[in-house]
Here is the input.
Amino acid sequence: MAREELDPFKISQTQLDAAADLMSLDKQAHALLREPKQTVVANIPVKMRDGTTKVFTGFRVLYNDARGPGKGGIRFHPQENLDTVKALSAWMTWKCSLADIPLGGAKGGVICDTKSMNLQELENLSRGYMRAFSRFVGPDRDVPAPDVYTTPQIMAWMLDEYEKLEGHHAPAMITGKPVELSGSEGRYDSTAMGGMYVLRETAKMAKMDLARSKIAIQGFGNAGKFAFEIATKLAKAKVVAITDSAGGIYDPKGLDYEKLSRVKEETGSVDNYKGGSKISNEELFTLDVDVLIPAAIENQITKHNADKINASVVLELANGPVTPEADKILFERGIIDMPDFLVNSGGVIVSYFEWVQNRDGYYWTEDDVYKKLDAIVTRSFGSVVKTQKEYKAKGKKITPREAAYIIAVDRVAKAMKARGWY
Here is the structure.
């Protein structure tokens, strides 16, 4: 498999290039939007439990802030690298723009294995990250949030360290905090909730009865777990398959969420679920289901397995799970593939709500948050469908991803133009 196909940043550039061509984007704007505005790499010394000091590599990328302060999570992951962080910062730019919230795109990360670290080491690393990057973040500059293997508690440590450095309270400098520390109601399951709103609208468009549908989910982390719970409780759908990094389970009669959650917590993998049959991640993609939800990591559906997908709808809850080559194959096969930066935008939208609440000092109920989230996601979905129809009327059939890119890139380009950046 060619390296370019699996390089997240090159994939993000390829997606941008396709949209730029379709919309005849100004060449100067295109050039500005192909690369991050600012990239910072830092060494973070951390005192370990054995008394030694270990140096970790950390990143913070500000992709574009023409529409507002940067916004993007921080990942703690052993395979973290700069290209992935750059790609995620680009996708955050388009995600905020598509949702039409006044924020730009950014992302951060640290190369580390959190599973081998105790709480004190995690706290030391979290505070060390903030000491290394405090000059580059802030409520009016760049607002971090949780991501893979980072938690509300880690955000709390980072906030505390930032406030010590600045000498004043600044709750709006980071989101995804515990509710007790000025976090927002509804934040923890917001990514999955936003995805379910997209699924609801997609089902309406495709005339699909969700209560009769079968769903397969790749990933049982935060996004996948809440997607399972919400899909079964609110949409009355049946989740028949789930996988994680260790394996998976399939039962055409449907899986039990509570039982699965207990098994995952007690044993570390859904693979130990009693009932149904064991399956691999590869087998999950070939199942005869109505909806396939990749909710794990990048590059899971490629040109090598896209022709084996049997679902009618692919709902990209993960970032970058479908490569450009696979995107074309799915589209040609008539499979509705709803793009990541629409589907998983719920997290950043509710992070935006948290930022607004922190700045105003006025806090909303969970119901308020969900209603506002629903309105924005539904509006974004409608804009994507409308753009597809407009291009079809011109004789061009475009994918939902291309339509979403056209909307998002146009808004950012207009903001840069208004600022005189080109």
